[in-house]
UniProtKB/TrEMBL annotation:
Protein name (record): Coiled-coil domain containing 154
Organism superkingdom: Eukaryota
GO BP of this protein: bone mineralization involved in bone maturation
Keyword Coiled coil in record: yes
Cited InterPro entries: CCDC154
Keywords annotated in UniProt: Coiled coil
Any coiled-coil regions, as ranges: 174-208, 448-482
Pfam families: CCDC154
Amino acid sequence: SQRPLPQPHPWASAPSLLTIALEDLGLLEEELASPEPPSLEEVLENDACSRLLSDASNLEQGTPKRWKQLEQWVADLQAEVASLRGHRARCEHATLSLLRELLQVRACLQLQDTQLKRLQLEARQAAPAPEKEDIQAGPGQRCPFCARLVEVREALTQIRRKQALQDSERKGAEQEASLRLSELTGKLKQEEQDREVACGALQKSQEEVGQKVDHEVARMQAQMTKLGEEMSLRFLKREARLCGFLQKSFLALEKRMKASESARLRAESALREELEGRWRQLQELDTERVRALQGQLCQAPSARQQEECHLLEQCRGLDKAVVQLTEFVQQNQVSLNRVLLAEQKAWDAKGQLEDSRAGELATYLQENLEAMQLASELAQQEMHGALELLREKSQALEVSVAELVRQVKDLSDHFLALRWRLDLQEQTLSMRLQEASNEWAVAEQRWREGLTRCREEAEAHLREVQEQVDQLPQQIEAVTDKCVLHKSDLDCKISAEATARELAVEAVRQELAALLSSVQLLREGNPGRKIAEIQGKLATNQMMKLETSIQDNKTIQNLKFNTETKLRAEAMATLQESVLRLWSEEGPWAPTLSSRRGPMSLGRQQLFVKDVAPNDVVPVNHWGVYQAVRWLQWKTALMNLAARQTPRSVALEKPLGQKPACRLSSLPVPQK
């Protein structure tokens, strides 16, 4: 029973072929292990069955190991294909991640380029602004530019740090990408070598299996031909023996028949000779008697009559004897015939028995020959079926091997294409990295050029700012002088207002005393004293409110003065910090500037510091008149700048001491 094998799928050929092959192998084992049809001779049946079972057991012992090995090899190939697919997915994921990182690096470079361009534009826009403001507002507006320069420096330092970080990140990304590419190429090469080794081993194993299957098929064919020849020789020997036995039995039977026939013929010839002799004797006796009677008749008629009578009696006696003899002969003939018939019947029965035995033996031999022919035909059919199954399985194995070879070839082509793709991606990535590095070098060169330009502009601005800072002590002294004058004016105004209000309070008290006396008089003599009491209460309440308002005004003035002094101190501290920062950062431009700045900066560091006495809790301002006048000048410049940039209504509503702080807080923060 031949079953058509299904066409294997390209990706699921090995398991299906294995299951089919195992099922066919099981059927083949069942067919080989099944007993042969029963024959008539037990010896031949046992011999043939033992040989077939030994062949089936050898085939059964040899083939499952090979099938297991083939199954293991196919499973290993499938696992290798799955691992190669996973590695391919990982390679694609790694390439995508590298492309994303490169895009991120490129975006960062573009963002840095835009930031550099923006800073260059801001620097170019901010370059002519101090000259215009210097022309418009004078030396009072240099402080915002100093703060702006400080912010620009901070922004430049942050940009440098970012660029250094991005350079390190870019180098790390390039190194990581190169390492990943080297690892991927190494893994691909290793996997390709492993795959080639596995393919070579698989081809060798398949060739060995094919050779072993061919050897097994040839061995089984040789065994079957040898078994057929042995069976045919045994059948021929058995047939020759039977033919010799039959010939011997037939020859013996023929000899017996010939002997019995010769004995019968001899007995018949003896009886015939005896009868003929007796008949001749009787005829001779009869002739002699007739002759004697004729002589006697001639001699005497009476005697002749007597003799005739005697002769008649003798004739009668002879007739009786002849009758008895004929009866005896007939009886002998009958008995002889009976004996002959009995012997013939016995020989016929014996011949029939021999014929029946010979027929039975011939039929037995014919049945044996037919059974042996059927057994040989069945064995040949089974061998042909087994050979067909083996051929089909070998064809299926060849198809599966061809499919596996095709899949391996496709995988090798795919991996070659993937390798080419990875090489192309590596080349594109290297080109992109080279382009990015070139762009980065161009951007860095531009940035350095812009930085040198900004440095030159900053040096020019610093020269101007230094000149303005040189003028700052005079301005601060003028401002401090103005502050002292303003404070003395405010003290005079506050003292005059306080004396005037005290006089007003005294007058109000006198009026109240007069009112109280009048109210007392009204209580004594006037019935409307309730009205006077109410008015007195109202007057006292007004006086108390006036006193509280005077105290509140004093406290407000004191608070304003204290806040103004605090704001001045904070502004001076910020100004001092900015000046100290400028003096500390003027190191790289020291060769371009005048060499007399070092000792002047050391001497000027003591101008804007408030001294604290060891016994005083509150810091006391120990500035001179010159520093106060300069401070008042600086304050007026800042107030004018704040008044110019803010609306007039908002500037009027805010307190006087808060304007420098508002100006300092309203400076634009540079975009980093």
